[in-house]
């Protein structure tokens, strides 16, 4: 099972996916005032929530990063070598609070995250109502960030060494201590030489340009269980975006749509269908054929049947998800009144007189 993944950046800032640059900045400023850890001292989670908002703003305020995120999600950013840091985000925070710029850049150490887990992926496909009866296996295609097959994810050309980053001495971070109006602050940022990895391939992989992961199309065979409802999702653990080295892969969530069938109306495991019968069949009784999911079946029409009455075909409905007895099919009779010839009208009038 995959571990928790970062929240959607638009959800973090409380904005729509089509938000403008002005709306993004306004939403960030509002949350910055509420969550800055040096102002909001009562909420123990304020610092983490503040980091989350600053990270969301850093991505969504940059057109190129935003486009990558909209297309590939969190792992699309990571696969491109991006690691979150405050940058201009803290500038906005301090401008909102103090009317000036931030004196400590990456003060909260956004680079200290460890191996990131892969993001989840959503996909969907449609099945027919008949396939709900026994279940079905379908292949679904999607785009995912995957481990580079050429270098097995280490970012180096096969057979070439990976050396320790000289700039950060293998820590993956650059730190600086400074004094600010809020006291002594340790600035921490991902190393600009190794991108926070602590190691640098001597010869970067030609397949992924040293990143270790690439975006590519994937397919997966999804087993749809019998009795599934329209809109339900199937979770496939580990089939999502690949995580960073040492991190878990995300999950694939497949939404199953059940196509409407004009012959039936579905209500859970129950099916409702209608059948037209001649008025004479309703009066005298008859045997007719009705459509079921498993083909036509014989059905007796009781004499004296009224318009709208129903007959139940037991076990002709759908199975319950997870097992159990099948539901029923409810057949609704619709009496069809034909146009009469002159002779038929005379007979009908005679019958009418006798029944009156």
Question: What features would you describe in this structure?
Answer:
About 25% of the residues lie in helices and about 30% in strands. It is α+β, with helices and mostly antiparallel strands and about 350 residues long. It folds into 3 domains: about 110 residues, DnaJ domain (Helix Hairpins), CATH 1.10.287; about 80 residues, Urease metallochaperone UreE, N-terminal domain (HSP40/DNAj peptide-binding domain, Sandwich), CATH 2.60.260.20; about 90 residues, Sandwich (HSP40/DNAj peptide-binding domain). The strands form 6 sheets. It has a 4-stranded mixed β-sheet. The protein has a 3-stranded mixed β-sheet with strand order 1-9-8. Strand 4 and strand 5 form a beta hairpin. The termini are far apart.
Find the CATH superfamily of the largest domain.
DnaJ domain
User: How many beta-strand elements?
Assistant: 15
Proportion of residues in helical segments: 25-40%
Q: What is the level 1 CATH name of the largest domain?
A: Mainly Alpha
Low-confidence stretches: 86-113
- The end-to-end distance, rounded to whole angstroms, is 74 Å
Output the helix-strand order: HHHHHEHEEEEEEEEEEHEEEEH
Oligomer: single chain
Structural class: alpha+beta
Q: What secondary-structure arrangement, pairings included, does this model have?
A:
Blueprint: H1 9-13, H2 21-35, H3 46-60, H4 63-79, H5 88-98, E1 121-127, H6 129-134, E2 136-147, E3 162-164, E4 173-180, E5 183-190, E6 199-201, E7 213-224, E8 233-236, E9 252-258, E10 265-267, E11 270-278, H7 279-284, E12 286-292, E13 295-301, E14 310-313, E15 329-336, H8 342-355
Parallel strand pairs: 1-9, 11-15
Antiparallel strand pairs: 2-7, 3-6, 4-5, 8-9, 10-11, 12-13, 14-15
Helix pairs in contact: 2-3, 2-5
